[in-house]
Amino acid sequence: VAVTRGRYGVSVTDLGDRVVGTHLREIGEWEQPIVDIAAELLRPGDTVWECGGHVGAHTLGLAAAVGASGLVHVWEPQRAPRLLLAASVALNGLRHVDVHGEALGAADG
């Protein structure tokens, strides 16, 4: 596990993650254009749902966009990335981010 500072704060990543984790550790962001588009649409105080939060690469940017007066609900059903996501949320003091472990959808898979 690695703790690194990125564009939106501290991220906790798996050292074995050679894609998202590597980008977060080396560049400090992942898929930044997606976060930029969301930030243009979101305002402080908004509520946003992120379905499939993985390790929180987008979550931290969404949390910054809605601010402490907003709310981010993020779902990640896989335990390992969800724990890393929750650690990043906690280390950044993001009380307005709720991490959920349920899978969303009508069927498994």
From TrEMBL:
InterPro entries: SAM-dependent_MTases_sf (IPR029063). It comes from the Eukaryota. This is FkbM family methyltransferase. It comes from Aureococcus anophagefferens.
